[in-house]
Specification:
The complex is a heterodimer. Chain A is mostly beta strands. In chain A, about 10% of the residues lie in helices and about 50% in strands. In chain A, strands 2, 5, 6 and 7 form a 4-stranded antiparallel beta sheet that branches. In chain A, strands 1-8-3 form a 3-stranded antiparallel beta sheet, covered by helices on one side. In chain A, a hairpin with an 8-residue loop joins strand 6 and strand 7. The radius of gyration of chain A is 22 Å and the shape is elongated. The radius of gyration of chain B is 20 Å and the shape is rod-shaped. By secondary structure, chain B is mainly beta. In chain B, strand 6 and strand 7 form a beta hairpin. Classes of the chains: A mainly beta, B mainly beta. At the A-B interface, strand 1, strand 2, helix 1, strand 3 and strand 4 of A face strand 1, strand 2, helix 1, helix 2 and strand 3 of B.
Protein backbone atom coordinates (compact mmCIF):
# COMPACT_ATOMS: atom_id res chain seq x y z
CA UNK A 1 0.00 0.00 0.00
CA UNK A 2 1.25 3.52 -0.76
CA UNK A 3 1.20 6.47 1.57
CA UNK A 4 -1.91 6.82 3.67
CA UNK A 5 -3.33 10.28 4.14
CA UNK A 6 -4.18 11.28 7.70
CA UNK A 7 -7.02 13.81 7.53
CA UNK A 8 -6.78 16.93 9.72
CA UNK A 9 -8.57 16.37 13.00
CA UNK A 10 -10.90 19.35 12.81
CA UNK A 11 -13.89 19.38 15.09
CA UNK A 12 -15.35 21.99 17.34
CA UNK A 13 -16.11 24.37 14.48
CA UNK A 14 -18.95 24.62 12.04
CA UNK A 15 -20.96 21.52 11.23
CA UNK A 16 -21.27 20.01 7.80
CA UNK A 17 -24.53 18.32 6.86
CA UNK A 18 -25.42 16.03 4.03
CA UNK A 19 -28.54 15.01 2.22
CA UNK A 20 -28.70 11.96 -0.01
CA UNK A 21 -30.42 12.98 -3.23
CA UNK A 22 -30.77 9.59 -4.88
CA UNK A 23 -29.39 7.79 -7.89
CA UNK A 24 -29.67 8.99 -11.47
CA UNK A 25 -28.43 11.82 -13.65
CA UNK A 26 -30.81 14.60 -12.66
CA UNK A 27 -31.87 15.58 -9.14
CA UNK A 28 -34.50 18.00 -7.89
CA UNK A 29 -32.56 19.56 -5.05
CA UNK A 30 -35.23 22.13 -4.25
CA UNK A 31 -37.84 19.45 -3.56
CA UNK A 32 -35.39 17.29 -1.65
CA UNK A 33 -34.53 20.18 0.69
CA UNK A 34 -38.17 21.05 1.25
CA UNK A 35 -39.04 17.41 1.97
CA UNK A 36 -36.19 16.79 4.38
CA UNK A 37 -37.01 15.97 7.99
CA UNK A 38 -33.70 17.46 9.13
CA UNK A 39 -34.22 21.12 10.07
CA UNK A 40 -30.58 21.91 9.35
CA UNK A 41 -31.17 20.81 5.79
CA UNK A 42 -34.62 22.35 5.56
CA UNK A 43 -33.16 25.79 6.29
CA UNK A 44 -30.80 25.69 3.31
CA UNK A 45 -31.49 28.26 0.60
CA UNK A 46 -31.23 26.29 -2.63
CA UNK A 47 -30.57 29.48 -4.63
CA UNK A 48 -27.27 29.92 -2.77
CA UNK A 49 -25.86 26.52 -3.62
CA UNK A 50 -23.13 25.89 -6.19
CA UNK A 51 -21.52 22.85 -7.84
CA UNK A 52 -19.16 22.59 -4.89
CA UNK A 53 -22.08 21.74 -2.60
CA UNK A 54 -22.55 18.39 -4.28
CA UNK A 55 -20.56 15.22 -4.31
CA UNK A 56 -21.27 12.46 -6.79
CA UNK A 57 -20.20 8.85 -6.83
CA UNK A 58 -20.52 6.65 -9.95
CA UNK A 59 -23.00 3.80 -9.63
CA UNK A 60 -21.10 1.53 -11.97
CA UNK A 61 -17.97 1.22 -14.00
CA UNK A 62 -17.74 1.08 -17.77
CA UNK A 63 -16.19 -1.08 -20.41
CA UNK A 64 -15.86 -0.83 -24.15
CA UNK A 65 -14.42 -2.73 -27.05
CA UNK A 66 -14.24 -2.33 -30.75
CA UNK A 67 -12.37 -3.54 -33.77
CA UNK A 68 -11.99 -2.57 -37.37
CA UNK A 69 -9.85 -2.81 -40.41
CA UNK A 70 -7.06 -0.35 -40.78
CA UNK A 71 -5.63 0.81 -44.05
CA UNK A 72 -2.92 -1.52 -45.24
CA UNK A 73 0.35 -0.03 -46.17
CA UNK A 74 3.41 -1.64 -47.46
CA UNK A 75 5.18 -3.66 -44.79
CA UNK A 76 7.76 -1.54 -43.11
CA UNK A 77 5.73 1.66 -43.29
CA UNK A 78 5.29 3.18 -39.87
CA UNK A 79 2.87 5.77 -38.68
CA UNK A 80 1.86 7.23 -35.39
CA UNK A 81 -1.34 6.95 -33.47
CA UNK A 82 -2.84 7.75 -30.11
CA UNK A 83 -4.13 5.63 -27.29
CA UNK A 84 -6.20 7.37 -24.64
CA UNK A 85 -8.24 6.51 -21.56
CA UNK A 86 -10.20 9.02 -19.52
CA UNK A 87 -12.93 9.19 -16.86
CA UNK A 88 -14.19 11.97 -14.65
CA UNK A 89 -17.15 13.58 -12.90
CA UNK A 90 -19.39 16.13 -14.57
CA UNK A 91 -21.92 18.12 -12.57
CA UNK A 92 -23.93 21.24 -13.15
CA UNK A 93 -26.24 22.89 -10.65
CA UNK A 94 -28.83 25.50 -11.61
CA UNK A 95 -29.43 27.83 -8.68
CA UNK A 96 -32.54 29.21 -10.35
CA UNK A 97 -34.33 25.89 -10.89
CA UNK A 98 -32.75 23.96 -8.04
CA UNK A 99 -31.87 21.05 -10.29
CA UNK A 100 -28.55 19.21 -10.29
CA UNK A 101 -27.43 17.37 -13.42
CA UNK A 102 -24.59 14.95 -12.78
CA UNK A 103 -22.83 11.98 -14.36
CA UNK A 104 -19.43 10.47 -14.94
CA UNK A 105 -18.10 10.74 -18.46
CA UNK A 106 -15.68 8.26 -19.94
CA UNK A 107 -13.76 8.18 -23.17
CA UNK A 108 -11.31 5.71 -24.54
CA UNK A 109 -9.80 4.11 -27.56
CA UNK A 110 -7.10 4.62 -30.11
CA UNK A 111 -6.76 6.47 -33.38
CA UNK A 112 -5.73 4.83 -36.62
CA UNK A 113 -5.34 6.34 -40.03
CA UNK A 114 -8.60 5.02 -41.39
CA UNK A 115 -10.72 3.66 -38.60
CA UNK A 116 -10.35 5.46 -35.31
CA UNK A 117 -11.72 3.33 -32.52
CA UNK A 118 -12.71 5.97 -30.05
CA UNK A 119 -15.69 5.34 -27.84
CA UNK A 120 -17.32 7.35 -25.09
CA UNK A 121 -20.29 7.45 -22.80
CA UNK A 122 -21.45 8.21 -19.31
CA UNK A 123 -22.62 6.42 -16.18
CA UNK A 124 -25.15 7.61 -13.62
CA UNK A 125 -24.26 8.48 -10.06
CA UNK A 126 -25.33 8.70 -6.46
CA UNK A 127 -25.58 12.34 -5.44
CA UNK A 128 -25.26 14.03 -2.06
CA UNK A 129 -25.81 17.61 -1.03
CA UNK A 130 -23.02 18.75 1.27
CA UNK A 131 -23.64 21.90 3.27
CA UNK A 132 -21.47 23.62 5.86
CA UNK A 133 -23.23 26.02 8.19
CA UNK A 134 -21.96 29.57 8.55
CA UNK B 1 -33.99 17.03 -19.49
CA UNK B 2 -34.73 13.47 -18.42
CA UNK B 3 -36.47 12.28 -15.32
CA UNK B 4 -35.53 14.18 -12.20
CA UNK B 5 -34.93 12.08 -9.12
CA UNK B 6 -36.16 13.35 -5.78
CA UNK B 7 -35.77 11.58 -2.47
CA UNK B 8 -38.83 12.74 -0.61
CA UNK B 9 -37.82 11.92 2.94
CA UNK B 10 -34.30 13.26 2.83
CA UNK B 11 -32.17 10.93 4.90
CA UNK B 12 -34.93 8.46 5.55
CA UNK B 13 -36.24 10.32 8.53
CA UNK B 14 -33.25 9.34 10.59
CA UNK B 15 -32.70 12.84 11.92
CA UNK B 16 -29.48 14.86 11.80
CA UNK B 17 -27.04 13.81 9.14
CA UNK B 18 -23.59 15.27 9.47
CA UNK B 19 -20.45 14.47 7.61
CA UNK B 20 -16.76 15.25 7.79
CA UNK B 21 -14.33 15.84 4.98
CA UNK B 22 -11.42 13.42 4.97
CA UNK B 23 -9.38 14.97 2.20
CA UNK B 24 -8.32 14.46 -1.38
CA UNK B 25 -6.19 11.36 -1.83
CA UNK B 26 -6.40 7.65 -2.63
CA UNK B 27 -5.89 6.34 0.90
CA UNK B 28 -7.23 7.70 4.18
CA UNK B 29 -6.22 6.82 7.74
CA UNK B 30 -9.68 6.89 9.30
CA UNK B 31 -8.53 5.27 12.53
CA UNK B 32 -6.08 8.07 13.31
CA UNK B 33 -8.57 10.67 12.17
CA UNK B 34 -11.14 9.43 14.68
CA UNK B 35 -8.59 9.18 17.47
CA UNK B 36 -7.37 12.76 16.87
CA UNK B 37 -10.75 14.35 16.32
CA UNK B 38 -12.03 16.99 18.73
CA UNK B 39 -15.59 16.51 17.50
CA UNK B 40 -17.51 14.39 20.06
CA UNK B 41 -19.69 12.89 17.32
CA UNK B 42 -16.60 11.65 15.52
CA UNK B 43 -14.77 10.66 18.69
CA UNK B 44 -17.63 8.34 19.60
CA UNK B 45 -17.19 6.31 16.44
CA UNK B 46 -15.49 2.95 16.51
CA UNK B 47 -13.49 2.53 13.36
CA UNK B 48 -13.94 -1.25 13.59
CA UNK B 49 -17.71 -0.83 13.18
CA UNK B 50 -17.58 1.31 10.05
CA UNK B 51 -18.30 -0.11 6.63
CA UNK B 52 -17.56 1.10 3.14
CA UNK B 53 -21.12 2.47 2.97
CA UNK B 54 -20.24 5.02 5.65
CA UNK B 55 -18.08 6.84 3.12
CA UNK B 56 -18.90 8.75 -0.02
CA UNK B 57 -16.26 9.72 -2.54
CA UNK B 58 -16.01 11.72 -5.73
CA UNK B 59 -13.34 11.65 -8.40
CA UNK B 60 -11.49 14.91 -7.92
CA UNK B 61 -10.74 15.30 -11.63
CA UNK B 62 -10.45 13.29 -14.77
CA UNK B 63 -8.34 10.18 -14.51
CA UNK B 64 -6.72 10.49 -17.91
CA UNK B 65 -3.78 9.06 -19.76
CA UNK B 66 -2.77 9.37 -23.37
CA UNK B 67 0.26 8.49 -25.37
CA UNK B 68 1.42 8.69 -28.95
CA UNK B 69 2.90 5.57 -30.40
CA UNK B 70 4.22 4.32 -33.67
CA UNK B 71 3.18 1.12 -35.32
CA UNK B 72 4.04 -1.04 -38.23
CA UNK B 73 1.09 -0.84 -40.55
CA UNK B 74 1.40 -4.37 -41.78
CA UNK B 75 -1.20 -5.14 -39.12
CA UNK B 76 -4.50 -4.69 -40.86
CA UNK B 77 -7.02 -5.47 -38.15
CA UNK B 78 -7.11 -3.20 -35.17
CA UNK B 79 -9.04 -3.46 -31.94
CA UNK B 80 -9.38 -1.54 -28.73
CA UNK B 81 -10.91 -2.28 -25.37
CA UNK B 82 -10.96 -0.70 -21.97
CA UNK B 83 -12.72 -0.24 -18.70
CA UNK B 84 -12.81 1.96 -15.69
CA UNK B 85 -14.73 3.08 -12.67
CA UNK B 86 -14.48 3.72 -9.00
CA UNK B 87 -12.71 1.52 -6.49
CA UNK B 88 -13.73 2.02 -2.87
CA UNK B 89 -12.95 -0.29 0.02
CA UNK B 90 -12.63 0.01 3.76
CA UNK B 91 -10.50 -2.21 5.98
CA UNK B 92 -12.18 -2.29 9.40
CA UNK B 93 -9.14 -3.97 10.93
CA UNK B 94 -6.70 -1.22 10.02
CA UNK B 95 -9.18 1.64 9.74
CA UNK B 96 -7.96 2.60 6.28
CA UNK B 97 -10.22 3.72 3.44
CA UNK B 98 -8.82 3.12 -0.02
CA UNK B 99 -10.49 4.71 -3.03
CA UNK B 100 -9.61 5.88 -6.50
CA UNK B 101 -11.04 6.53 -9.91
CA UNK B 102 -9.34 4.61 -12.66
CA UNK B 103 -9.39 3.83 -16.36
CA UNK B 104 -7.49 1.60 -18.69
CA UNK B 105 -7.43 1.13 -22.43
CA UNK B 106 -5.72 -1.38 -24.69
CA UNK B 107 -5.12 -1.02 -28.40
CA UNK B 108 -3.88 -3.83 -30.60
CA UNK B 109 -0.84 -1.94 -31.71
CA UNK B 110 -0.61 0.68 -29.02
CA UNK B 111 -0.23 -1.24 -25.81
CA UNK B 112 -2.13 -0.38 -22.68
CA UNK B 113 -2.66 2.94 -20.97
CA UNK B 114 -3.82 3.15 -17.38
CA UNK B 115 -4.71 6.10 -15.21
CA UNK B 116 -5.62 6.48 -11.56
CA UNK B 117 -6.97 9.60 -9.91
CA UNK B 118 -7.57 10.91 -6.40
CA UNK B 119 -10.96 11.16 -4.79
CA UNK B 120 -12.49 13.61 -2.36
CA UNK B 121 -13.80 11.56 0.56
CA UNK B 122 -16.40 12.22 3.24
CA UNK B 123 -17.32 10.18 6.31
CA UNK B 124 -21.08 10.17 6.84
CA UNK B 125 -22.48 10.40 10.36
CA UNK B 126 -26.13 9.93 11.22
CA UNK B 127 -27.17 10.95 14.71
Amino acid sequence: MGSVSVPPSGGGGSKTYYLYLGTGTSFNVQNAIMSSTDRNIKSIDYTKLTNDNFIIEPTSGFSYSGSGESERFEPGWTGSSTNISRMGPSKSYSASTGVLTAKYNWYGGASYRVCPQYKGGSVSCKAYLIYTED
Amino acid sequence: MGMVSTMLTGNGGRGKSCCVYLGNSTSFDVKTFIQNSRDPAVKRLKYQNLTVNDFVVEGSANASREFIYSYDSQYMNVSVSGNGGLTKSYNSSTGVLTANIHTSGTATQGGTVTATGNVKAYLLLTA
